[in-house]
Amino acid sequence: MVEKEIILLTKSTMRNHFCTAGIDTNTGEWVRIVSPDDSVQHAVTEADMTYSDGRVAKVFDVVRIKCLEQRPTF
Fold it and tell me: Which of 14, 25, 36, 57 is the most exposed place for a label (fewest CB within 10 A)?
């Protein structure tokens, strides 16, 4: 598992969840954040986007995520 720090640049609603992506602050690479949940086409849940203080992450926030794996798409 790898931890990444990402500047969140997109957050759109997808099936009552979110489609999110941003820039890795260390590499400058574009990162699309997905969940392992195939039933919602890998959208990210609100719980996944919620900080410990109850606020939900928004565009331009710098977030830290734990990546289970990397799946490059070309």
Answer: 36
Nearest to 18 by CA among 8, 7, 28, 5: 8
Report the candidate in 2, 13, 16, 10 with the shortest Cα–Cα distance to residue 64.
2
pLDDT in tens, 22-36: 999 999 999 999 888
**Rounded-to-integer distance, Cα 44 and Cα 63, Å:** 14
Average pLDDT, the chain: 90
pLDDT of residue 73: 62
What radius of gyration do the chain's Cα atoms show?
12
